[in-house]
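>> received
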Amino acid sequence: MRNAAVGVLCCTLMCACSGPVGPIAGGALEGTPMPWPENWEFTDSVENVLLETNSTEDPYSVTVWCAQDSGNLYIAAADEDSQWVVNMRADSRVLLSIEGKLVEGRTSTVSNTDEIRRVIQAYLVKYEIEKEEYFVEEDGVLFRFDRR
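>> returned
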């Protein structure tokens, strides 16, 4: 009985939330709009950001990691077939929530090898992961978050 009540409570809470809950995708993000930042260094201390795609039709949001380099913010995906990646390829307009602050932007796929190497290094340092664990070089894709 107690497990059923906990299950119902969890489902209710998840349905009441608009954004993602941990690894579970959500809908439209909520928060306070913020202006485009001068630089993205403040994200060095932010572990996760929320990313909303498909904003005009059926908003789809996920929790992602980000890294900044040379004044730009980047989002990496381990699987280029993930729903949010498919959505961004169809419509590059996205919304980021960084600690409850919303920033509108567009994403562009990074193909420059030097830029990819620098950003991979930024991810390795920020998240303290081993290069062998990193995913962008094989099946993943790297996006730069640009001003709309």
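>> The first helix runs from residue 2 to 16.
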